[in-house]
Design goal:
- The chain is an alpha/beta fold and 271 residues long.
- It has a single domain, classed as Alpha-Beta Complex (Protein-Tyrosine Phosphatase, Chain A), CATH 3.90.190.10.
- α3 runs parallel beside α9.
- The longest helix is centred in the middle third of the chain and has 16 residues.
- The N terminus is likely disordered.
């Protein structure tokens, strides 16, 4: 059964788990979900979003107020160079990022050449992204660092990529699985991206490049590129299961989440 949405935190403008921002897409708390034994994933410690290149002064003040100590930037070098994140004057968080490329131009960012982007073609492009992600050495490295940082660092963390939905969605889903959240709740959290009140920000940042490659894009195709479908996450899990036998086996042998680390993460992040 799907648990209640994370409760709002006083003093910040929110709609459910979403923070209301002016230049950051999909900034939300992915804590609050139930785990076995009547516990819940802590809120206020686990944040996710898109990139921060257009963060307003109010957005930067919000990030500063959230007291984030660790940022895991899932973007590659060219994305970070082309779309540098703005920082608050008091910014002092550790930033973890891969030295190289983490993606070969995701379709929702305007890559792949000029074609007629039908809904089915958009779906196929995104499924290919989720099929490649589990075997991408760069993503394996950065996911390992994400779990290491969550284990070793204190305070709040924020994980983000460009749109804050695919690479970031997998990172959040993997952690919730490790913490014992029911799969239905993990799917529900993954799909919350489609309800983000900041879709206009992502369209402003991505749509011109996408249309330069694909021409005009019909609404259903645009949803498949800019939103998420349950089968995207299912595709990632199916590939991992095919290659490693189970998601837990992949976490233990490839992403560094062995039994002791899993217990430490649960002790730290579940209340």
């Amino acid at each position: 059964m799907i648990s209640d949405s994370p409760a709002p935190v006083s003093g910040t403008a929110r709609i459910g788990p979403f923070f209301l921002t002016e230049g950051i897409h999909n900034l939300r708390d992915y804590g609050g979900y139930a785990v076995p034994g009547a516990g819940r994933v802590r809120t206020g410690l686990l944040l996710r979003s898109g990139q921060h290149m257009e963060a307003s002064e109010a957005d930067l003040a919000l990030i500063d107020a959230l007291d984030i100590r660790t940022i895991v930037d899932l973007r590659g070098t060219s994305e970070r160079t082309g779309f540098p994140c703005r920082r608050h004057a008091n910014f002092a968080a550790q930033v973890i990022a891969y030295d190289g490329e983490t993606s070969n131009s995701p379709p929702h960012e305007g890559g792949g050449g000029r074609i007629v982007m039908t809904p089915e073609k958009a779906r196929e492009r995104m499924l290919a992204v989720y099929t490649r992600m589990p075997v991408n050495p760069a993503m394996i490295w950065v996911f390992r660092e994400y779990f290491r940082a969550l284990d070793e660092n204190e305070g709040g963390s924020l994980v983000h990529c460009f749109a804050g939905k695919d690479r970031t969605g997998i990172a959040a889903s993997l952690l919730l699985h490790v913490l014992g959240v029911h799969h239905d709740d993990i799917i529900a959290e993954f799909l919350l991206t489609n309800e983000a009140p900041t879709r206009a920000i992502l369209e402003r940042q991505s749509l011109p490049r996408m249309e330069a490659h694909y021409g005009a894009i019909e609404p259903e195709a645009l949803h498949n590129l800019m939103g998420v479908l349950p089968e995207y996450l299912d595709t990632y899990i199916a590939k991992v299961t095919q290659d490693h036998g189970s998601l837990d086996a992949n976490l233990a042998t490839t992403l560094g989440v062995d039994g002791p680390r899993k217990e430490r993460l649960r002790a730290k992040l579940v209340a």
